[in-house]
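Ticket 4471: requesting a sanity check on a complex prediction with iron/sulfur cluster. Repro inputs:
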Amino acid sequence: MLYSRKSVYFQFLVKVHPTVFSEGNCQCRKRWSHQLSLDSLTLSRSRLRQTSHVPRKPSISPSKITTYLACPVKYRFTYLDDRAKWLLRAKSYYSFGSTLHRVLQRFHDSGDSGVTTTSEVLAAYDESWIDAGFSSAEEMAEAYGEGKEILERYVAEAQEKPVEAKTLFVERQLRHDFGDFVLIGRIDRVDEYEDGTLEVVDYKSGRTAVTEEDVAADIAMCCYQLLLSKKYPGRPTRARILALRTGTTAAHSLAGEELETFERDITTLARMILTEDFDQRKAVRKPMCDYCDFLTLCKQDPDFPEA
Ligand code: SF4
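Returned structure tokens:
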């Protein structure tokens, strides 16, 4: 069985794709597992070459995987079809998140000694502000105020907390070559603890709450730990999500059999995605379509239902 019930990743799939992966939906799951088995066994280098949007070796990332699981047609439009890219619109929440990430990167970067106090952090905030995607000046002013409060609280808490770890690096891309494809992940921050544990810290600018179960089921967090374990074999790893709006945080460690299961599942899924014939994919109407940049393209299909 490719996806054991205990697999964190399977639990994730059930959560995000209940119609396909629910344990009660035996027929769909059987078909899916069968497809995965075939793909993993018969992976052909020639089919991988057909996905030649990446000139050399195909790459996969947590963003690509989550996009695919949410909607394979969206994956195609986002990553494979150049004609669709002009439809992508700037989003205010991406701008807001990118701004906060940039400031926190500088705050934790030991090579950037100019951003340590609250006033320096707020100056960096002004320098880093991205205004793309906001629908009005009022909306942007509100977001700007929220960001300022988040950063002020963040710096105050960081200054009060005892130092338990040192920052190993910030905003770095890790990659691992699995032979026929490369897994890539961009990590916000990695802290190193005295006992040798490496902790990935991921900032979430839109969230107010997070639990250990959320971290365990988060595909990006699992990918980051897999990448860390490849780069630093033998070192214990942990992933932590920090909900910036409230300062709430939770962590989960992926190790041993659980990590091996995740690696097996994720590499199988990656190969399935990278070898899929997307021309055969039909757009399926779902709630997220109403907010999708590609809705106008999908509506061109006469079989695509109106809302
Ligand atoms: S409109 Fe719906 S079906 Fe089409 S790409 Fe977007 S999410 Fe997928």
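Notes from triage: The radius of gyration is 21 Å. Leaving this open until the requester confirms.
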